[in-house]
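sorry for the late reply, my laptop died twice this morning and i had to redo everyting from scratch. anyway the thing you sent over, i finally got around to it. pasting the sequence first so we're on the same page, its 196 residues, then the predicted structure underneath. double check i copied it right bc i was rushing
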Amino acid sequence: MNAIKLVVTIITFHVAFISFAQTNDALAKGNDYYKESVFDLAERQYRLALEHDATNITAQYNLATALYRQRKFAEAITVWQNMRNNLNNKELKGSSHYNEGVVYSKQKDLLKSIDAYKDALRNNPDDKQARENLQKALLELKKQQQDQQSQKKQQPSKLSQKEAQKQLDKLQQKEKDIQERLQKQGQKGSSMPKDW
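ok and here's the structure:
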C-alpha cells in the first residue's frame, strides 16, 4: 500500500512540475515576444501559460498589458479586473487600476478614468503617476464642463421652423391690425374739421 502512495505522489509531483515548467516556459517566451514588440505572439504565450495555471498573476497582468498594446482595451480591462479579484498585493492592484485609468483616458471617458486613478491611489497612495494623471483628468473634465457652459451661452435659442413661422404670422397679423386701425382713424379724421 505504501508503494502505491509513493507512486501516486511521484506522479502528482511530476505532473505539477511539468505544468509549472510549461507555465514558466510560456511566460518567458511571452516576455521575450513582448520585449520585441510582437504583442500578438506575446498574448498567445501568456494565454498558454494561463491554460497551465489559470491563477498565475504574472501571466494575467502581462496578458492584459499585451492586449492593451494591441489596442484591445475592453479585453485588457476585463483581464485586469478579473485578476484583481484574486489579488492581495495592493501595489499590483493599484497598478492595474492605474492602467485602466490610462485606457479610459485614451478613450476620453474622463469619469471612469478619474474613478480608476482614485482606486489606484487608494491601493498605492505613493503612486505619483496616478496622482498626476488624476489631476490632469480632473482639469480636463473641468475644462470640458466650462466649454459646454460657454457654448450654451453663445448659442442663440434655436426655433423650429413651425415656431418661427407662427411668430412671423403673429407679427404680420399685428401689422395688419395696426394698419387697419390707422386707416379707421384716418377716415374719422378726414370728416372732422381742422382746428387751426
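Confidence is low (pLDDT under 50) at residues 5-19, 190-196.
thats about all i looked at so far, will dig more tmrw
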